[in-house]
Amino acid sequence: VSESAAKLPSKILELMDGFRASKALFVASKLKIFDHLKDKCPLKAVDIANEVGTSICGTERLLDACAALGLLEKTPQGYSNTDSANTYLTLDGEYSLHGYIIHSNDHLWPLFTNLESAVKEGSRQNHRAFGRKAEDLFKDYYHSQEVKQRFMAAMHSIAHLTARDVATAFDLSQFKSACDLGGCTGALAHELVQIYPNLKVTVFDLPEVIANTSYFQPSRQHTAPVTFVSGDFFEDNLPEADLYILSRVLHDWPDEKINVLLSKISSVCKPGCGILLAEMVLDDEKKNRSTVLLQSLNMLVQTEGKERSGSEYRELLEQHGFTNVKIRLMGNLLDVVLCVKT
Ligand code: SAM
Fold it and tell me: Is 251 assigned a catalytic role?
C-alpha cells in the first residue's frame, strides 16, 4: 500500500460505496443468478446472460462485481457460486435469505430513498415511497397479496436463520405452552417444538397472515404440530399460555401501544408465566452497535417504532409486573430477553 493510499479515508469511502454493493447483491438475487449457478459447473457470462435474458456486457460487469465482493468465484472456466451463496442466496438454500433480499430491494430501498424526509418529519414514509399510507404499517403491507407474500417471505427467511439461537438462548423447558404473538409464518414456533418436544406452541397473528401460512410450513414434520390462531393482539383475547413470545414485534410500535399489549399479556399471565422478547438490544448509551442503530433508522422510515436499549425494555416490562429480567446479547441479528410475572 502506497503512503498516499494509506491516508485515504477508507471507512468513509467504504460507506459511500455501500449502496452500490447492496444493489449489486439485490439485482443478482432478483435475476436469480445464484439459482442459475447452483449445482452447475462454472458458467461463462454469455451463458448466464442467455439463460437469464440479460445483456452480455451488463451481466459480465455484475458477475465481476459479485465475484470481487466474495459472492461468486471467478476462474478461467467461468463463474460459480461460493458455498455461502449456495446456502444463503439461492431460493432453496438451507438458510435462504432470498426473501429478505427481495424485500430489501423492493420495499426497504424505496423507503430508505426517503430517509431525509423521515429524519426531517420524524415519521414513516410509505406515502412518499408507494403513494399511500394506511393507519399502520401492517395495513400497508397486507393491502395487496403480492406485498404481503413478499413481506412474509422476508420475515420467514430471517426468522428461520435466527430461530435456533432465539429458542436456545435460555432453557425454556419449565414452560408447558407458548404463544408466539406476531409469530407470522411459524418459523420460530417450528424450531421451538423441535427443541422442546413437550412444549405446545401457538402462533397468533393477524387473519391476513394466518390465511397465508400454509406455503411456509415444513414439508416433513416429525414434531408436535404448531397451532395457528388469528386475531389482533391489541383488540382480541390472547390464547392462554405459560410463555408469551414477542419476536421483532415491540420494535414496530411506540411505547403507548407497547403498554397496551404488555398490559393485556400481564392480565392473562399467572405468576411464574413469562415473556420472551427477541429484539436487537442497544447499549444504554446508544452508541456501540451500528447494525442496531441502522435498524432503528429502518424502523423510522417504515414504522412508528424504534430499537431500544436493555434498560428501556426492562423498564417497559417491569411496569407490567414482569421481573427477573435477563438479557442475553447474542451479538448477531437478535438478542433475547426473558422475564417472569411475579
Ligand atoms: N415474529 C416474526 C419474526 O420475528 O420474524 C415476525 C415479526 S414482524 C416484524 C411483526 C409481526 O407482527 C407480523 O407478522 C405482523 O403481522 C404481526 N402483527 C402486527 N400487528 C399485529 C396485531 N395487531 N395483532 C397480531 N399480530 C400483529
Answer: yes
